[in-house]
Amino acid sequence: MENKKHSITVAGLGAGDMGQLPLGVYRQLKANRKIFLRTKEHPAVSELEREGMKYTAFDDVYERHDQFEAVYEEIVEILFREAEQEDILYAVPGHPFVAERTVQLLLEQSAAKQTEIKIAGGHSFIDALFASVRVDPIEGFQLVDGIALKPHDIRTNQHLVVGQVYDTLTASEVKLALMEKYPDEHRVAIVRAAGSTDEAVKWLKLYELDRGFELDNLTSVYVPPLKEQDLRDFAELRQIIAALRAPDGCPWNRAQTHLSLKKYLVEECGEVLSAIDNEDEDNLVEELGDVLLQVLLHAQIGEEEGMFTIEDVIEGLASKMIRRHPHVFGNVKAESAEEVAQNWERIKATEKQEKRE
Fold it and tell me: Its domain of life (predicted)?
């Protein structure tokens, strides 16, 4: 007879202390005999302990691994193993669907493990954080992981929340990434334990982000949007080109077609070559920008005609680079530039043949 599979209920503890714990989650915590916590470092846990709640926390798992993904995989493995014996409850900070990698892993593996995953709500730390900094994010915001933050992921015209800024090293890395996009003196807020009685908010200049403030797993960073145009942002450049082609835009740009722009692309490419020959890097930057202008104008015309967009151009290029570099993105071996060139030509020929067919 097949063993009966039990369920895992994932409950969100909310962002604050027990006063903000949803009643339904509180009842689940009181009713379940087998409770697991991703971490006991949460404002509500000490109060629940005083009410007699017994639990197993996974804080020690963090100590056994250098990489977070390994931590999360071990936690999930333990949870599925325990669920083979009985129904269990797994409690996480905030809401189960906000910045909780273990929950995503549970859902991804639930079918293979034949284990039902139930979700019980909880207030997200995002709600509490925006209340802490007195901001309505209606114009748009980004939520990013401080551990994996890259400058090109950031949209400076939106509110930005950086989670998992749990120590000085992470704060330093976050600071360096942000300084690629924001002025050094841009005002940011460090928010700790948002929504709890221990809440602390400190506003400071960006370059001070990793100095003199206690950081832990309840710490996030809030970055307000830039008030002025971010002329280093690709989306901003697209809007400028669209404005030039708009009905109330530039008459010359509105009059251009793919055919009329041909000569300008040739001219600009020639000027790029001249800048390279002259080893003039400042001029090279300018001339590459002029070539990019031609690409964006053609893409804007294509979008207006309903034929293609700049995203189509980018997707086509990205797909080609992946296909033609199997030694980087696949399992093919290429030890020299000559082998790479041979692979490139072979793949290119195959692609052409497939198009003819």
Answer: Bacteria
Torsion, CA 73, CA 175, CA 225, CA 228, rounded to 10 = -150
Rounded Cα–Cα distance for residues 352 and 168 (Å): 53
Q: By the 8 A CB rule, do 295 and 241 touch?
A: no
332 pLDDT band, cuts 50/70/90, is confident
Q: What is the pLDDT of residue 357?
A: 67
d(CA 206, CA 184): 5
* Segment 92-132, tens digit of pLDDT: 998 999 989 999 999 999 999 999 999 988 888 898 899 99
User: Across the chain, what does the average pLDDT equal?
Assistant: 92
Q: What is the CATH number of the domain that holds 195?
A: 3.30.950.10
Domain that holds residue 254: 234-323
Decide if 302 contacts 309 (C-beta within 8 A).
yes
Q: In the chain, where does DSSP find H-type helix?
A: 23-31, 43-50, 59-64, 68-83, 101-113, 125-133, 168-179, 234-245, 251-255, 262-277, 281-304, 310-323, 326-329, 337-356
Strands of 56-57's sheet, edge to edge? 56-57, 35-37, 88-92, 7-12, 116-120
Report the number of distinct structural domains present in the chain. Answer: 3
pTM summary value:
0.71
User: What SS3 state is found at 179?
Assistant: helix
